[in-house]
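Fold this sequence, please.
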Amino acid sequence: MNSPISNHILECVEIKPDIDVSDVWLCSYALSIGWIPQAHAAVRNGRAKFEHISDSVMLQPMGIVEGNKVPVGNPFYISNGKKMEIIPDTTLCLSAKFTRKYPINAGWINRYAQIPSTRLEGCNEPSFQSPDTLFTISQIPVFHNSATVNSDKPYRYVRVIADLPSYANMDRLDIYDKTGTLVASEKKRFIDLGSPHEISRIDYFPWNDGNFVIPGHDYELAYWNWDKWETIARLPSNDYCLTFDSIPAHALLILHDLTEGKEERPFTLNNGRQIWW
């Protein structure tokens, strides 16, 4: 879960398998692998008991049948010392908007926190001896950010400059002229537009982990339906966010980028917000 891990521990969790198995394994979800065992208990009198289960981890009870892992109960997590089962309700469906398929880690957030005060400058000399500041980044950016340029002066060269050069690394700069035409899209801190242009807007994309929703990519949203991921919908993205409808309430979800990228993690929804597990 992407909230701080607390100290709440449930002293004992009982699992009553839905099928006849001799042992139960509590499994967590691992990147590109799926459900992997984390704890084991033998079934006695129809129940498997697990002690000292901490919160903030989604666990799927599994048994072994003919050499294969099979679910023997619903996924669950511990919250404030209580066992909370995840049971999708297909009679109550939701809509939600997504911008990521994997949680952003603290390293990226700390890096983005250093970007404010970075400047986008324009000049007509490649040496930038007398540059004009087109925009100063004042807020912590994330992925897709747009800067309005209030200048009628044409510029041939544009650059990104920061107090610490490493924090000026941009995955891409998209530069638009006064007619709204894209005149450059470059993965550089220094851009030669070829000729002077009156710039109206610069969209800037800091270096990132590639787990944001990206225009031109195809995505699949699925929910955990007892023993498999059930597809809700497959959609192309035309923007930096993607809206899915017909999402079963209270479901464990996962968003796949079908175009590229392997990192993904299950999540639930809380008032439309992704809660990562």
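The first helix runs from residue 106 to 112. Residues 1-6 have pLDDT under 50 and may be disordered.
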